[in-house]
Specification:
Elements: H1 2-9, H2 15-26, H3 30-41, H4 50-66, H5 78-107, E1 111-114, E2 121-124, E3 130-133, E4 138-141, E5 151-162, E6 171-174, E7 179-182, E8 186-191, E9 197-204, E10 207-210, E11 215-218, E12 222-227, E13 233-237, E14 251-257, H6 259-270, E15 273-276, E16 287-292, H7 296-307, E17 309-314, E18 317-322
Helix pairs in contact: 2-5, 3-5
Length: 323
Amino acid sequence: MNELENKYKDNSLTPAELTELRKQVNGMTEKQLEERLRESWNADIFKSDPVVSERLKIIKEQIDSDIQPSKHSYRLPGHIFRIAAAILLPLLLLTSIHFYRETVKLSNGEILFSTQEGERANITLPDGTQVTLNTNTFMTYSPGEFNYKERNIQFNGEAYFDVATNPSIPFIIHTKDLRIKVLGTKFNLHAYSGNNTMSLTLEEGHVLLSSRKEEKELFPNQKAILDCHNGRISIIKEEVPENASAWRNGELAFSNQELQQVLSDLEQNYGVRICIESHDSINTDLFTGKIPADNLLDALEVLKYSYHMKYRIDNKTIYFSAD
C-alpha cells in the first residue's frame, strides 16, 4: 500500500492501481485507518521544510483538539466510517500534497501583501513581527530566505511596525530611496514612492537609515525625514511619536504642521487631489490637531472652520478658497 500511496502523491497512479488503493482502504479496520492517516500526516515529504513542518504540526494539534470526543459524542457504525475514510484518505493526501507544492512554489518566489485605496490590514510575519498596513501600500518578502541570515522586505507605502527582537537576524526594510535596519523596535514608516520625502518616526528601539548619500541613526522620540531629491536625511525631535501612527485609530494627527503638508497627507490618505485657490488670502498658520482619516467630508469640515475656508468638490478634486 505504501507504493500505491506514493504513486498517488506523485499523480502517477493508473486507473487499475487507483481501484486497488480504494479496495485496500475499504478493507482496513477503523484503527488501521486512523493509524494510516497519522502516518500520512507525518510523512517525510513535509519534513523537508522546517517552517512548513512546524506549521503543519500546529494545524494538526488544533485539529486533534477540535475532534476530541465530548460527553455527548456518538459513534458511527464501522461501515459508515470505512466509506467516509475511503473518500477522505485520498482527499487528504491530495490536499496535503497540494499544500506542500504550493508552499514550495511560494518559497521560490515572493509573498505579496497589499492594500487598496481606503483599506488597511494587519499582518503577522513568520518571525512574529506585527505590521499594520495603511491605505495604498504593498509589502513583499521571500519566504525561502526570510528569517535566516536576514529578514528582508520590500516596501512601498505607510505602515506601523512592531518588529520581533532577534539581534542575530537583523530586520531590513528596502524602499525606493531608503534602507532601514532594525533589531527590534516600534516605528511608523511613511515611504510612498513618488513623494518628495519619506519619513520614519521612532517610538521604541534603535534603527539605522541609509540613503544614497548618507547614514543616520535614529533613537526614540525622533523622526527622520529623507529628501528624495538629494538623498539627505534630517533628524528632528518628535514630542508625541504616537501621532505619526494615529491613522491606525482612524485619525490623522498633526503638530505645528504647515497647511500644505496637512493637505498633502489628506491627498495621500483619501486618494484625492486638493487645490488651493487664491492662496494669498488663506490663513497659513501652523496646524495642530486631529482630522478624521476615514471620513473625507468630516475632514474637510475641520479644515474649513480651522482656516476659515470654503471648498467645493469636483469628482475627485477638491478646491479650497478663502471664505
